[in-house]
Design goal:
The complex is a heterodimer of chains A (385) and B (125). Chain A is of the alpha/beta class. Chain A contains 13 helices and eleven strands. Chain A has two domains: 132 residues, Thiolase/Chalcone synthase (Peroxisomal Thiolase, Chain A, domain 1); 212 residues, Peroxisomal Thiolase, Chain A, domain 1 (3-Layer(aba) Sandwich). Chain B has two domains: 44 residues, no CATH class; 71 residues, OB fold (Dihydrolipoamide Acetyltransferase, E2P), CATH 2.40.50.840. The radius of gyration of chain B is 15 Å and the shape is globular. Classes of the chains: A alpha/beta (385), B mainly beta (125).
Chain lengths: 385, 125
């Protein structure tokens, strides 16, 4: 494919919301998702009855598209509860882009909610246990990511201190986000002093287990301009799947983000250097390093040194996970949708103390399974279209 | 040619004390985990074949558990024939396992009803 895609800028995000991030005792996953969805629709200046495309995953309801339609009393023309893990919502944006552009739907709502902290008390996984992994009882998902980290350290000399730098940067951003669940000082030594879970990953190298919900609303560019807030254009959206279980990934230091990112950038007609803010799914500290490399923000193998330099922290050259990420902001299981919400808030100039001045283009990236599904969205202000 | 149930056949062999994996004579490729159809090539003529049992540690981690239970090594071993599998490297401290270490397969009791393949350093054999 040469030159930007005809889909570039044809659709836009016109509503975004979060709800119940951290602890939301007493609420069910559906109640959290429903409230985030309502707030996102309100944010767009629309009514629930305008929604004719519904995209959702819930941790405990595989037919949640049916459940939320009934809950809202809406009758969507398109209902999609497909799941690729935590990347699902970015793939939903990709599908919504296509359906909106084709005129099949006019207003898409994408939402997620989970009460996994106060309800389940641990990460709820939707991945079926593999007959060939389960007999070894890996403490998944962390063991799979730890295996990838072991390979990165072996091949590129990446260190535990460099992994820890990812968590430290995330915390520094979280300290500027009043919604963040985990705040306060965090140094490299503090990360390394936490308990090892699966070598080389410590507790502080792992994402939080919190409650939380998020939602975004999308429509076509022609309708977006009339709505309440600055429309954030979708300039490119692409996804890729290379494997499911970690032992089947050909090279544990290269993920399918290298493919989804390349296609999303091609669709948008942009390069990594054009991006002002990056929000990616940091389930574990190694993820941030792998995805920054695979998405082209630094050369393969240089991710450890890149994050160690302070480049992704406040004041650095490339703001990454400005909400504090899954490591310090919130992580209610399938975090992907929060990368879109934070990107939208940054481009709208709604990010308060953590606002990146003049940000006009953002990249959101989701990960699903054990580095298995990768999905990339590139967003821009209307003038970038 | 439709394969006999691949998952059940793999574990039946293990439970009989034999580590066999699939190999396609037409393409020459070894396949793990066992499948109805070989990935990428689409071959369906796989036969159960005994690999050398030798391999190299490709990636390794330690599942840290609460004392007094011992920590557990979780590794990905690349068989000399090509395929990789998740496994344990045993006969050595869990955190002393290194990428590149040469290992040899062994069949041991698993946590469930089936036996499993683990590895130990080749030098220990």
């Amino acid at each position: 494919m040469n030159g930007p895609s005809s889909l570039r800028g044809k659709t836009a995000f016109v509503g975004a919301a979060t709800f119940g991030c951290g602890e939301a005792p007493g609420y069910t996953a559906m109640e959290l998702a429903a409230e985030a969805g309502r707030l996102a629709v309100e944010d767009a200046g629309l009514k629930l009855s305008d929604i004719d495309g519904l995209f959702i995953c819930l941790p405990n309801d595989f037919l949640s598209g049916l459940s939320l339609s009934e809950y809202y009393g809406i009758q969507p023309r398109m209902t999609n509860n497909s799941r690729t893990g935590g990347s699902a919502f970015l793939t939903h944006a990709e599908w919504a882009m296509l359906a909106l552009d084709a005129g099949l739907i006019d207003y898409a709502l994408i939402c997620y909610g989970s009460n996994q902290r106060t309800g389940a008390g641990k990460l709820v996984s939707a991945q079926a246990p593999s007959a060939f992994e389960f007999p070894y009882r890996p403490n998944n998902p962390v063991a799979s990511y730890a295996l990838a980290a072991s390979r990165h350290m072996h091949q590129f000399g990446t260190t535990s201190e460099q992994l820890a730098a990812v968590a430290v940067s995330a915390r520094q951003w979280a300290n500027r986000n009043p919604e963040a669940f985990r705040q306060g000082p965090l140094a490299i030594e503090d990360v390394l002093a936490t308990r090892l879970v699966a070598d080389p990953l410590h507790v502080a190298d792992c994402c939080l287990v919190t409650d939380g919900a998020a939602a975004v609303v999308m429509t076509r560019a022609d309708r977006a301009a009339d709505l309440r807030k600055t429309a954030v254009s979708l300039l490119g959206a692409a996804s890729a799947t290379w494997h499911s279980e970690i032992a089947q990934l050909a090279d544990l230091t290269v993920t399918a983000a290298s493919e989804s990112g390349q296609r999303a950038f091609a669709q948008a007609g942009l390069r990594p250097a054009d991006i002002d803010v990056v929000n990616l799914y940091d389930a574990f500290t190694i993820n941030t390093i792998l995805f920054l490399e695979d998405l082209g923000f630094c050369p393969k193998g240089e991710g450890g040194r890149f994050v160690e330099s302070g480049a992704i922290a406040p004041g650095g050259s490339l703001p990454v996970n400005t909400n504090g990420g899954g490591l310090s902001f919130c992580h209610p299981g399938m975090y992907g949708l929060f990368t879109l919400v934070e990107s939208i808030r940054q481009l709208r100039g709604e990010a308060g103390d953590r606002q990146i001045k003049g940000a006009s283009m953002a990249l959101a990236h989701g990960n699903g399974g054990t580095l298995s599904s990768q999905a990339t969205c590139i967003l821009g202000l209307p003038e970038t279209v | 040619m439709t394969q006999a149930p691949p998952t059940a056949t793999y574990f039946r062999h293990l439970n009989e004390g034999r580590f066999l994996i699939q190999r396609s004579p037409s393409t020459g490729e070894w396949v793990f985990y066992p499948r109805m159809v070989a990935p990428v090539s689409g071959a369906v003529d796989m036969e159960w074949t005994e690999p050398s049992g030798l391999g190299t540690v490709y990636a390794t981690t330690v599942k840290r558990v609460k004392p007094p239970a011992a920590n557990i090594n979780i590794a990905i071993v690349e068989l000399d024939e090509g395929p990789r599998l998740m496994t344990h490297v045993q006969g050595i401290e869990a955190d002393r396992v290194r990428i590149g270490m040469r290992v040899r397969s062994r069949i041991v009791d698993g946590p469930d009803d089936n036996k499993i393949v683990v590895f130990e350093p080749e030098s220990a054999a």
